[in-house]
Design brief:
CATH class of one domain: Mainly Alpha
GO cellular component, one term: cytoplasm
Number of strands: 0
CATH superfamily of one domain: Leucine-rich Repeat Variant
CATH topology of one domain: Leucine-rich Repeat Variant
Keywords: Cytoplasm, Protein transport, Repeat, Transport
Helix content: over 70%
Largest sheet: none
Subcellular location: Cytoplasm
GO molecular function, one term: small GTPase binding
Oligomer: single chain
Shape: globular
Distance between the termini: 52 Å
Protein name: Importin subunit beta-1
């Protein structure tokens, strides 16, 4: 049976219930009759790069479930079965698992990490598999190790530390783990994913590190801590550690922290040594989240003027921390509609004057000032009437931010990014009619700047990176402006400039940078929404870039954004999208079949099927068998997702929501013509929905999408579903659950769905 394991694993995920039942029986028989070879076959399947991703996925799940269980009695039973397996076979299984850490498929790597930890939890306490840590460390130290292997290795170390106790490892093994973790966290490691995995692994390994933390040299090594280091947000030093710890205390104990910290603040805030002043300011800023507004507001009112004056302190560190503290005040406590207002008509002029003056300070301080302006403006975003008090200052603020973005006295790209992000927030907040002219003027300025980036002389990779970063920021600003103006009376400004903007975006695509590609795609999606059917004239030239985005599975964020833009274009063009649907559907179906594509892209693709079907109606008929086949396959996969893995539970919810949204779009698309084509799929769709209803892990988004789909099913297929709804009575309980929800939108959807089903049942 080991020779047939691939076909059996695939059959166990079939949509045909009879085929699936037979395959599940075969797997159970194999497991019961020959557990050692069953485990070996699964591990080989998981490690084989030539095998289908679907069979590898299920192999990993079965392997993990054969070694671990929630029930303690069952868990011990499985452990004893593993212990009794022949040593040669256990060695082969473990080698296959270690090999899988280098897989090109992320899901296989992750599953292998988890299974390795399960085996380790059985063997290491028995003083077996003593070379595991050394082998994992070797993955981190080899010069040719790929980032994906390092990331998987660090995840494995983290899982192992979760599964075993510190007493199970020798000190040299603990040292090896911490060495690997620190290497992964090191700033010299270019991969963000590897560094993040290192930080997560350190979190899980902290219980093992007690001895190391007692040694100052090792403690400093673990925490990348140096004397007199420059104040940099990316450097973890003693001061930052103290502030972070204090902030966590404040969030946990609330008001009780205030009388303990304020004496320190008051004693040090005016001392001659800048370190005291900076520390006092940092401490105050660190306790703003947690205590009640009522407790903090008198302190903020008393200290705000002092903080504003401290922006003129002679020491840069003090000004930097003061600007950060002001940003924290505005972020956490500033709410114009609250009875406890931090910013008033009386103090706003002084606040804006200080901020617009301080934004010209050294780059580090200027960056924090951008953040303070951002949060100050954000506080007015949801309060349209109050935002009018900001209007007199917005033009000067935008001018100052654009000048900051142009500064030549720094190589710090974060300052430029902060400046443009703050401009975006000002645009989002501006709701007064007099602000719209200012935004229109800003739009032309940003378009001019984007055009200028296309003429830059590129003579090095650094020049290219600088151009790409700047284009991404400018495209991001234009996206926000388009969204703002298209929802206002100034929409005509967008329509007048649409041709010029589209030319710019297409030229940006010509630069072939993935980061620019993402931002330009998002801006084009906004432009499609704004221009509606008029966007059709851009499609012939834009389609080539859209197709490139859909095919870019290596940079999955680009692919995901491109999928979203397809939905935007479908809603804008309706049936005018039809000439491009063959290519789009082909690309989407290939993406779903591509095991290399990040799984997060697949749920939006299913939703996109619904957008396309809704746009072209009965013309979707030729794609229907292929789309439904993919949807049914994904529905089958949901059955096998690991409910003990939070990430997989979240992914399962995304997947099911995408499936329901796809069916809703398809049902609505066929409502007025050829609805009978969907009747054969109704029974399985109801069975899937019932299974989702019974799943305690579904989230509100899934519930909302499922209930809406039930209504669309009844509405589109009408009397054809009468027997199905009569026999599948779960819908009554499902809707009853929705009526008890606090979500008014869900209640409305459930009420509509209930009406559709009742209409069918009485027909």
């Amino acid at each position: 049976m080991a020779m047939e394991i691939t076909s059996i694993l695939l059959a166990a995920q079939s949509q045909d219930g009879q085929i699936r039942t037979v395959a599940e029986g075969n797997l159970k028989q194999f497991q019961e009759q020959n557990l050692p070879h069953f485990l070996l076959a699964l591990s080989i399947e998981l490690s084989n790069e030539q095998k289908p991703p679907e069979s590898r996925r299920l192999a990993g799940i079965l392997l993990k479930n054969s070694l671990d269980a929630k029930d303690s009695i069952r868990k011990e039973e499985l452990a004893q079965k593993w212990i009794s397996v022949d040593l040669t076979i256990k060695f082969q299984v473990k080698e296959s698992l270690l090999k899988t850490l280098g897989s090109s498929v992320s899901e296989a790597r992750r599953t292998s990490s988890q299974v390795i930890a399960k085996v380790a939890s059985i063997e290491i306490p028995r003083r077996e598999w003593q070379d595991l840590i050394a082998k994992l460390l070797n993955n981190m130290t080899q010069k040719d190790s790929l980032p994906s292997l390092k990331e998987a290795t660090l995840e494995t170390l983290g899982y192992v530390c979760e599964e075993i106790s510190p007493e199970d490892l020798e000190q040299d093994q603990v040292n090896a783990i911490l060495t690997a973790v620190v290497q992964g966290m090191n700033q010299m490691e270019h991969s963000f994913e590897v560094r993040l995995a290192g930080i997560k692994a350190l979190y899980n390994a902290l219980d093992f590190a007690q001895t190391n933390f007692q040694n100052e040299i090792e403690r400093n090594y673990l925490m990348k801590q140096e004397e007199d280091q420059d104040q940099d947000d990316n450097i973890w030093n003693l001061s930052m550690a103290g502030g972070t710890c204090l902030g966590l205390v404040a969030r946990n104990v609330g008001d009780a922290v205030v009388p303990l910290v304020m004496p320190f603040v008051q004693d040090n805030i005016t001392k001659a040594d800048w370190r005291n002043r900076e520390a006092a300011t940092f401490a105050f800023g660190s306790i703003l989240e947690g205590p009640s507004v009522e407790t903090l507001l008198p302190l903020v009112h008393a200290g705000l003027n002092f903080l504003l004056n401290a922006m003129k302190d002679q020491n840069t560190h003090v000004k930097d921390t003061t600007a950060w503290a002001l940003g924290r005040i505005f972020e956490i406590l500033h709410s114009p509609s609250s009875t406890y207002a931090v910013i008033t008509d009386a103090n706003l002029p002084q606040i804006m004057s200080v901020l617009l003056e301080s934004i010209r300070d050294v780059p580090n301080v200027a960056e924090k000032v951008c953040g303070a302006i951002y949060f100050l403006v954000q506080g007015y975003e949801d309060d349209g009437s109050a935002s009018s008090v900001l209007t007199p200052y917005l033009a000067d603020a935008i001018s100052a931010l654009l000048s900051t973005a142009d500064r030549m006295d720094t190589n710090n790209s974060r300052l430029r990014a902060s400046a443009y992000e703050t401009v975006n927030e000002i645009v989002r907040c501006s709701s007064q009619p007099e602000s719209l002219n200012m935004i229109a003027h800003l739009m032309h300025e940003i378009m001019k700047r984007l055009s200028q980036t296309l003429e830059l002389q590129i003579s090095s990779s650094e020049d290219k990176e600088n151009q790409s970063d700047l284009q991404a920021l400018l495209c991001g600003v234009l996206q926000v402006i388009i969204q703002k103006l298209s929802s206002s009376d100034a929409k005509s400004v967008i329509l007048q400039s649409a041709d010029q903007m589209m030319i710019l975006f297409l030229r940006v695509f010509g630069c072939r940078s993935s980061s620019v590609h993402e931002e330009a795609m998002l801006a084009i999606g906004a432009l499609a929404y704004a221009t509606g059917p008029e966007f059709a004239k851009y499609m012939p030239e834009f389609y080539n870039y859209l197709e490139m985005g859909l095919q870019n599975f290596e940079e999955y964020q680009v692919c995901s954004i491109s999928v979203g833009v397809v939905g935007d274009i479908c809603r804008a063009l309706d049936e005018k999208i039809l000439p491009f649907c063959n290519g789009i559907m082909s690309a989407l179906l290939k993406d779903l079949s591509n095991s290399m594509l990040h799984r997060s892209v697949k749920p939006p693709i299913f939703s996109c099927f619904g957008d396309i079907a809704l746009a072209i109606g009965e013309q979707f008929e030729k794609y229907l068998p292929y789309a439904v086949s993919m949807l049914q396959g994904a529905a089958g996969l949901c059955t096998y997702l690991d409910v003990n893995d939070e990430d997989m539970v979240d992914y399962g919810n995304q997947l099911r929501r995408g499936i329901f949204e796809a069916y809703s779009g398809i049902l609505q698309g066929f409502k007025n013509s050829k609805a009978e084509l969907l009747v054969p799929y109704a029974s399985q769709l109801l069975q899937f929905t019932e299974a989702v209803f019974k799943d305690k892990n579904r989230d509100e988004g899934v519930t909302r999408a499922a209930v809406a789909m039930l209504g669309d099913l009844a509405d589109t297929l009408g009397p054809n579903t009468k027997l199905l709804f009569r026999d599948c009575t779960f819908h009554s309980d499902f809707l009853g659950e929705c009526f008890e929800s606090d979500d008014e939108q869900l209640k409305e959807t459930a009420t509509w769905t209930q009406g559709m089903i009742r209409r069918v049942l009485v027909s």
